[in-house]
Structure formats: C-alpha cells, structure tokens
Amino acid sequence: MGGTPRVFVQRGDREVSRVSPQIRELELQSAIPAIPLESIENSFSRNRIITAAEYDAAPYIVANDGDNLIIGTGDQVFARGSFLIGTTSFEIYRAGRTYYGDGVKRKRVFGLISTTEEEVLGTEVEYLGFASITENVAPDMRKLLINNGTKEIRVGDRLLTRKVSTIDATIFPTEPTAEMSGQIIAFMGEENLASQLDTVVINLGLADDLAIGDILSIKNEGSSMTDEAERSKMSFRERMRSLFNQDNLVIPGNDIGTLLVYKTFDQLSYAVILTGTEPAELYDQVVSP
Questions:
Q1: Residue 179, class by beta-carbon neighbours within 10 Å (0-12 exposed, 13-18 middle, 19+ buried)?
Q2: Is the pLDDT of residue 115 over 50?
Q3: Where do the structural domains in the chain lie, given as residue ranges?
C-alpha cells in the first residue's frame, strides 16, 4: 500500500461483542454487620440496675476478718443475710443512683428546663468485685474470700448472685421487634456528653420488648420555632394568645449515631454507642432505626 510493504494477519471470522458496565446484585447475609465482642466489651459496664427491695434483701458484708482498714483482693470477710442453697459465688455491689419515672421527663418552658419525677424505675448498683464462700459460720452468716476487688470494698456492701454473660463472642445486631422511642437518661461517671464506645443508660427495657443485641438510632433534640408568616396574619390578641399557649412548630431532630443494647433490665437498659457524627447529650432520643 503506497509502495510500503505491509503484513496483515487474519484469524478468521470473529464476532465482536461490546462490554458495558453492569450491576451485580448479591444477597447480604445481614443488614447490620457482625461485631466481635472483644472489640467493644471493654466499654461495657459491670453495674446493674435492681429494685430497692432486691438491694435490701441481699446479703451484706458485716466485718473484715483481720485488721486491714481497706478490704480488697485476697481478704476474707463475714457476710450476713439469706443465702441461696448451692450458691457459692457472689458479686459485690454498692448502691448508686436511682432513676425515676420515664427516666426523667424534660419540658421546656420559655427556654428553661423543668423535670417531673414519677415512680422509681430502678436503683443502679456499682460493681466492686466478686467473692466466694469459704465457710458456713452460722445459718445466716458466711465467711467469704474476696477473689477480685476492682475498688475499695466496705462493710455494708451487698452480695448479689453472679450472672453469666448471655452475649456470644460475635454479636449479630438486630432491629427491635417493636417500634421503640425513648431517651438517654444518664452517662457513666460525671460526663456531660457521650461519644463512640461510651455506655449510656436508656429508659427502655424488657417491659418494652427491648432485647440484648438490638440497635437503636440516636436523634438530637428537635427545635421549636414560631411561624412568623402565620403570626403576621394574626391580631395582637391572637399573637399574645399563641405565645402563652406555646403554639410553636416543632422541627424534628437529626440522626447523630447508633447504639447497641448489651444489658437489659425491666424498664432500663445499658447501651454502648457504636457510631456518632457528634456527641450525644442527655435526653437525646433513641428510636428504632
């Protein structure tokens, strides 16, 4: 061609097909990925929430077997109370906060916050360690060895039967079986905010069909505003009436994170924050995802 030698190779007739991008659909095994327990269990609280009657009925430490002023790991103590036959191991607790009503109901009146307390939902007891019986001293008294103490143990601290964890090594988070709507009512410690892997107390529990492994969304508080366009059409008297009646528009809150429920009680639960776009505050809503 054009005086220049060319070599052409013909491999026979072939069909040419054009390849275009395609979407391949695969069925997910779980809508929410599984979570290894070891990655979050250090964030779990060992506290419990019980009734005042349960606390009062629990055996209690009456004396230290020795001259030590501080009771800790390796010490032996005497405890008095009603001991279940066959039970030899106990966890040691001390009474802490008491929760009321639907948690604590919060109302805004002219920018101020007021609270109303209702029935007691439960008393939080702080975990201090565990002990085992070494001797039956009397029908209502036992001698125990402090196997492990995480904090200073005192006379008067209570003994509760040890509970075996019901959480498997791999957690498969689920959505609640019923629609949930509650609040974060407390944090661990004295913090004012909670972020990823912090534990919070929510005012939902077994009575609400909440279960260990359930996932909930965290929503920050919505805002209220006045519809100025609507108010401009009102007379002065109507505007004043709407002000005192608090006829405001409520703007819904935004999703700011998710939490995983890991301990459930009758009306309250412990949950750990898995994800968050901003810190959670007290009284933020927790709802079905």
A1: exposed
A2: no
A3: 40-162, 169-289
